[in-house]
Amino acid sequence: MNATKDLGYSFYIAELCHKLFDITPAIRERQTKNTLIVSLTSTTIVEYLIRNGLCRGNKLKAGLKIPTWILNKKSYQKACVKGLIDTDGCLFIHVHKSK
Question: Is 37 helix (H, G, I), strand (E, B) or coil?
């Protein structure tokens, strides 16, 4: 997260984590990179996510299965894709030139 532009968003995420898991994450700034890190660590959260269809470990090796309850609702699908990009992905434009 951008430390300047996303400061409000980081507080929103922290509050959401608190509402969902009753755990307040740490928010810290990486000053040399102008980024924020929202850190939430708890075995309770891992177990909750596993019970709700996510798997442990490397998601690509496991087949990256998105739970049915997410696939059944458009707003959940959008939020899931945003979360995947935010945490594990990137988007780029590749311009291919051919003769």
Answer: strand
